[in-house]
User: What shape does this take?
Amino acid sequence: MSSSGPLFVAQEALCLYEISTIYNSCPRYLFYALLIASCVTRWTGWLADVFLGAAATYAGTAAIEAFILVASPQSKPEPAPVTIPFISYNTTLLNDFPQLITETTQVMIQPASLEMDGDAVLAIVVTGYLVFLPLQCWSRILTHQRARNVLFYLWNLLMLAGSICALVNATRKSNTPTQYMFCYPGLPPYDQTYSDGWQSSWRTSTWNESVWETFSNITRWNLLGDICFNPCLNSTQALRQSTSLESWVASKDSELANPNKFWNKLVYSRRYIYSLIVLCLVLNLVHLTFKFLPYRSRIPSARIVVIWKERKNIWNSFKEELKNARSKAEEQSEYKEAGLSSHVKISLWGRLRPFFSLIFLKASMRVSADFAILFGLVFSMIISPFTIIAFVAWAEWTIYNDGPAQESPRQVGQWSYLVSIGLLLISAAILTLKYRLATISELDEEIGNLRDGLERLEQRKEERLRSETAP
Assistant: This one.
């Protein structure tokens, strides 16, 4: 470095905690595969239970982390100014420092870090909710028992709460202040720097004094252990060890080389994704309303196949009700009650009056309600899969831009989840064959247990009947 050069330079940096092993690419893709398998095999009983149970527990873990992330936000100190040497915008230092701060003599320091688990948690809980809710609406096999319905309701509430918390956390992430690293001009930083613990002695009364004292004293700079001074490495996150915090340098060709452009693009696309999620939620709630409210609709079923087969009957029933209501309204209209002769010209209001009668309005409201239910059912079956695919693609694109995965698929922390599901499937398959593999004594014991259970169920049924018929 020449004697006339700056003592140090400042450039934008990214301070982050990488995605945890449990949320890396392999477990996430396995989760998506389990959701698909649950939908495809929902009529098989035990197989669907294995797939759905594994997916639900994984999503439940993500929902609980979403609660913790929202309940324990990162504490940020007050921003403080740091004076930096003035550097022209056409400096050659940009070749080594792609995010170099130029044309200014001051930056604001507010140490903070990004929690990349938030993006993965958002992808998991929202995808789980978008799948579990339609399953409760569409699948008669998975919800044919009251206990299963209660379980689905509780799980959907957990996923909804987790989704809300994950969305709140995503909003906080977009408000993370810009981070800076300070380096010697002749020593470009590493692409990634891991925190090995923060020493309180490196921070004096103010950030400005700490930075200038570090680069004015080579002995103090050597104590850093890194080439650059990263104030963000003293920030912490819930559920994380401080030594796993990283500081990244964005390259010229990456999206992160222009953080403002990247975040603007992310927020811009987020509007459409969130709008699609809200629309999907509303339509599925219409579906649940049709399924559980006591309103007697003319829609014969919540299944699209049955609706398609009965489409003509549905349409004819709509027309028939309106026609009958209009006939009754005309019979009760004033000009018929008055016994007007046929040669008297009927006014326009007289012709329109039956359409505004109470009978016709009630029939119109019932037809409109049935049509709204029909529209909600059909459209939800179309929009729900599209929403899931669009959200997963958007979420995975966001996670991809967060940086490379912490572990590769070859490492045990990634493929162990797949092996666990495989062992669970083998165990469940063996248990389905227990009667074929059982000995005679085991069969006798099982028959005795079934008889005892049947007697208890009959007694409970009689108690329930007596309680319901009692005055």
